């Protein structure tokens, strides 16, 4: 059970969230025939960030809305990525922090053995800081979970 070097799902999700070029975004996932989506969210509430990512993944067909294990997998990947951007605090508004984020969700099989099944990677990049324009800093989080 080895990861394929060119199939590093977390790397692809991170590259996808960091690029502004739409054609480059398409190239990142099309080369592997993986599913992906991306979007933006800004909030002082963690649950709104989670909801925005889940909604985009469902609307873009990355996960099936009526299959619990897919929603559950996505939730854990999102929480792991959020944990990274919030430095383990998992809260925003209650500690007077606001975020302006971009996210990318990638679904695919990163292993040589196809029976390992599909995985989800969620990358979140943007700014976090006090709710005063100009007093934020960059942040990046990544979460990966099996389906």
TrEMBL record:
Protein family membership: Belongs to the HutP family.
Gene from which this protein is expressed: hutP
Assembly behavior: Homohexamer.
Pfam families: HutP
Protein name: Hut operon positive regulatory protein
GO molecular function, one term: mRNA binding
InterPro entries (alphabetical): Regulatory_HutP (IPR015111), Regulatory_HutP_bacillales (IPR023552), Regulatory_HutP_sf (IPR036482)
Keyword match Ubl conjugation: no
Xref: CDD domains: HutP (cd11640)
Keywords tagged on the record: Activator, Histidine metabolism, RNA-binding, Transcription, Transcription regulation
Function: Antiterminator that binds to cis-acting regulatory sequences on the mRNA in the presence of histidine, thereby suppressing transcription termination and activating the hut operon for histidine utilization.
Gene Ontology biological-process annotations: L-histidine metabolic process; positive regulation of gene expression
């Amino acid at each position: 059970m080895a990861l394929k070097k060119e199939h590093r799902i977390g790397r692809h999700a991170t590259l996808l969230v960091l690029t502004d070029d739409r054609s480059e975004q398409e190239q990142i996932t099309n080369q592997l025939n993986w599913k992906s989506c991306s979007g933006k969210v800004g909030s002082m509430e963690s649950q709104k960030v989670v909801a925005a990512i889940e909604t985009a993944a469902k609307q873009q067909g990355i996960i099936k809305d009526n299959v619990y294990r897919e929603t559950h997998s996505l939730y854990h990947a999102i929480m792991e990525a959020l944990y990274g951007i919030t430095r383990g605090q998992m809260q925003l508004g209650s500690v007077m922090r606001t975020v302006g984020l971009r996210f990318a969700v990638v679904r695919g099989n990163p292993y040589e053995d196809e029976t390992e099944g599909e995985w989800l990677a969620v990358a979140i990049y943007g700014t976090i800081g006090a709710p005063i324009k100009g007093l934020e800093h960059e942040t990046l989080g990544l979460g990966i979970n099996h389906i």
